[in-house]
Amino acid sequence: MMLNIHNRKNWQNWRTLRREGFTLIEVLLVIVIILMLAGALVVFVLPQQEGAEKNTTRLLLQNIETALDTYRLNLGRYPTEEQGLDALLTKPTFENERLGEKWNGPYLKPGTKIEDAWGNKIKYEVTDTTDESNKNAPRYKLYSVGPDGQPDTADDIKAREANADSTGTGSGTTKSD
User: Fold this and answer.
1) DSSP-assigned beta bridge partners for residue 144
2) For residues 26, 29, 31 and 34, what is the CA-based torsion angle, rounded to 10 degrees?
3) In what order do the strands lie in the sheet with 157-158?
4) What are phi and psi of 32, to 5 degrees?
5) What is the pLDDT of residues 69-112, one digit of tens each?
6) Neighbour count for residue 58 (Cβ, 10 Å)
7) Where are the domains of the chain?
8) Cα(11)–Cα(80) distance, rounded to whole angstroms?
9) Are 151 and 124 in contact (CB under 8 A)?
10) How far apart are CA 27 and CA 77, in angstroms?
């Protein structure tokens, strides 16, 4: 009789030990839940990151525009294309000493990288200044080539369009278009 009780005790110990572990279905269920959470992360977070990158670039373009306008107020003109946007950070060489004395920079915070959120250099081009039809038109083009890194594509981010979006004016389009 004692042998029979001993065997019965072993059988109960084995059943309790077996219940302490995870079954295959429980492990698979946990894996499925983790995959669903990862999928939700991809669906909801990645679009937010793209929007944040575009907004960061728009803010950088607005800061550069402000710095360009301050530069123009001090020197009477915008930087040349040869000087580029670096003229906002470091004093460029000027054709005369008197003009160089008017430079009161840096016009951007020191250490500012003049790159968009995707690592592309911000483009600065001086436009034709002989057009007197619109005196309020900017004398430069300031834009980012966007995530694809190619100029003149749909994903480009232009400085004046960023301002037009926030004020509701500019670029010749109306809200009914």
Assistant:
1) 157
2) -130
3) 123-126, 140-144, 157-158
4) -65, -40
5) 899 998 888 888 888 888 888 888 888 888 878 888 789 988 88
6) 21
7) 50-167
8) 89
9) no
10) 69
- How far the first Cα of the chain sits from its last, in Å, is 96
Residue 145, token pair as written in the block = 């080539």
- Contacts of residue 144, Cβ cutoff 8 Å, sequence gap at least 6: 57, 60, 61, 116, 120, 122, 123, 156, 157
Q: 0.85 exceeded by the pTM?
A: no
Is 117 in contact with 56 (CB distance < 8 Å)?
Answer: yes
Q: Number of C-alpha atoms within 13 angstroms, CB side, residue 59?
A: 9
The per-residue pLDDT of the chain, averaged, comes to: 77
| pLDDT, tens digit (0-9, with 9 covering 90-100), for 157-170 | 888 754 444 333 33
Q: Out of 3.90.1170.50, 3.40.50.12780, 3.30.700.10, 3.60.15.10, which CATH number does the structure's domain 50-167 have?
A: 3.30.700.10
Tokens representing 49 are 């990151």
Whether the per-residue pLDDT at 61 is higher than 60: the answer is yes
